[in-house]
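Changelog entry: the Enoyl reductase (ER) domain-containing protein record was regenerated in this release. Current contents:
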Amino acid sequence: MQRQYSVYIVHCIYCIAALYINAGMQKDDRILIHAGSCGIGQAVINLALREGYEIFTTERRRFLKGTFPSINDNHIGNSRDTSFENIILQRTNGAGVDIILNSLADDKLQVSLCCLAHKGRFLEIGKFDFTENNQLSTKIFVKDISFHGIMLD
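Regenerated structure tokens:
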């Protein structure tokens, strides 16, 4: 159990370092954190709250509101379908978010990319699309985004 906990802490540290190094987190950034109720999601939400970012997240609304009451109710979406896209685009007046921490796969990854703002930064911590060699639409790069695959292990 001790080793598992230590490995988990290292994963969180790598993820947070990637947010600063690869995503270049800046004041007033909007961030979408998929699976905000998981351990890494919670660590990143804590960081984003401390830094004053506008936070969007997915999964387990009741848990997230209980743990992070300052997150706007209208900024919590569902990661089991693609409805989170509507929330992001409505709440940002179509501009999208500056940073996405993603762990979703397939069509949800593709839709997440559509939620990025111009010059947005996408951090992929999931492995499924990498191991399956799934393709990204090159159209998304017209928005001058950056895509970073982050291998936490």
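The chain has a mean pLDDT of 82.
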